[in-house]
Write a structure and sequence with these properties.
The protein is mainly α and 285 residues long. It is 74% helix and 0% strand.
């Protein structure tokens, strides 16, 4: 039942997207959008797909950047442009990542300024020029811009985000990612939206935010910590009577719960046999 409901939603969404594209493209080819006068219908269609791709790329970059932010440097792949992108993004004190977020937003807003005109229909109901001959009420609904919102949400945002979240390193291997990272950093450097830094700093001070590394450490520190715990656990269990190899479940529990680790240590120090411990527990029950 769940699978059937899932595919029903998929088909419904695809149908809505297809219908929205058909209506919007019909408006573009017939010149019935709010695109500026003097821009030909062909150019409007090209701008529509080009800017949608740019917005989608920027949306995917945001997801991919945060996905690789927690990876060790050695885990960021070997693709030349992926390495160049990561080197630029995480250079210095790490301000390029939030700087990209500011520049990205400026770029997205600029693109949507044009996309909004391209996807907004401008058909006067009642004049017999309705798209696909729909009723005046339906044409009024089309003119509200909801169909354009559906297109930009699915084609210009979510689709790219899903791909970038599943394949972040492959996504970063695209040379255009590096190019648009440079563009976004340039837009941020213009200072148009630098007030965001001040407001973010105030928010941080009021809320008492700290970087994730303060709580969980860097990727390298977490790896070193895990390796240290593993060796310590193995050392303790090597002296524990009744165990010849380290049970994986117990090792995981010891790494998560310090009290369990201390209990195992005490058993090892006191040379308590596991069988005797189980017998004592049964007698208590």
């Amino acid at each position: 039942v769940q699978a059937a409901f899932f595919w029903f939603r998929v088909v419904l969404s695809a149908a809505v997207l297809g219908f929205s594209l058909a209506v919007t493209l019909e408006g573009l080819f017939t010149g019935n959008t709010k695109m500026w006068e003097g821009v030909s219908n062909t150019v409007a269609v090209i701008l529509f797909f080009l800017l949608m791709s740019v917005v989608g790329l920027l949306e995917g970059m945001q997801i991919a950047f945060f996905a690789v932010a927690k990876l060790k440097k050695s885990e960021r792949g070997r693709a030349p442009f992926a390495l160049k992108t990561c080197e630029l993004l995480f250079r210095g004190d790490g301000h390029n990542l939030p700087g990209f977020m500011i520049g990205r937003q400026l770029c997205v807003v600029s693109c949507f300024f044009i996309i909004a005109r391209v996807t907004s229909l401008n058909v006067e109901p009642g004049n017999g020029n309705n798209i696909f001959g729909v009723s005046d009420a339906a044409q009024t609904f089309f003119n509200m811009g909801f169909l354009g919102a559906v297109i930009t949400t699915i084609l210009g945002s979510i689709t790219w985000q899903l791909v970038a979240s599943a394949f972040p390193l492959a996504f970063l291997s695209n040379p255009l990612v590096y190019v648009f990272l440079r563009i976004c950093l340039f837009l941020e450097a213009t200072g148009i939206a630098s007030g965001a830094w001040v407001l973010a700093a105030l928010h941080k001070r009021v809320a008492g935010f700290q970087r994730d590394e303060v709580y969980i450490g860097t990727a390298e520190e977490r790896e070193a910590k895990d390796l240290g715990d593993q060796k310590e656990v193995e050392h303790a269990l090597a002296k524990l009577p009744g165990f010849t190899t380290m049970p994986e479940a117990l090792a995981k529990l010891m790494s998560q719960d310090p009290s369990v680790k201390e209990f195992v240590r005490s058993m090892s120090a006191n040379n308590i046999d596991v069988g005797d411990l189980n017998l004592q527990n049964e007698e208590q029950v």
